[in-house]
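Quick question, first post here. What does this chain look like in 3D?
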Amino acid sequence: MSVEDPVDVRVDLDADDNSVRAVVTKRRELEIDDLFVDGELRLWEDDLGWTGYVREEIDEVTLYYRVNNRHDDRWSDHVVVGEQAVREAVRQHIRDPLAGEAGRFRRGCSPP
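> Answer (accepted):
Ran it through. Tokens below.
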């Protein structure tokens, strides 16, 4: 194992059954540039609209909103959230094994 190729191996030995089960996890890094474009982070988008986050800076204070936006520019959801909610949403999006199954997964966040 090297720093360039970090791997975690967990081994469960069943001596009675004369078997072993190994789980090998390889760590990969994903970098996403320009996460917010024109203040919008569109995580999902389909023909009706998009879901994600909006970032606004007002008097040097950054505000985040969880949004559902229809393409006719009507908000069906527009709720103030903290930065941690945005981080968690991106984390969950990347980990989602079904990402891309509903609508289009946006901003290069799809699982590698």
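Confidence is low (pLDDT under 50) at residues 100-105, 107-112.
Residues 7-95 form one domain.
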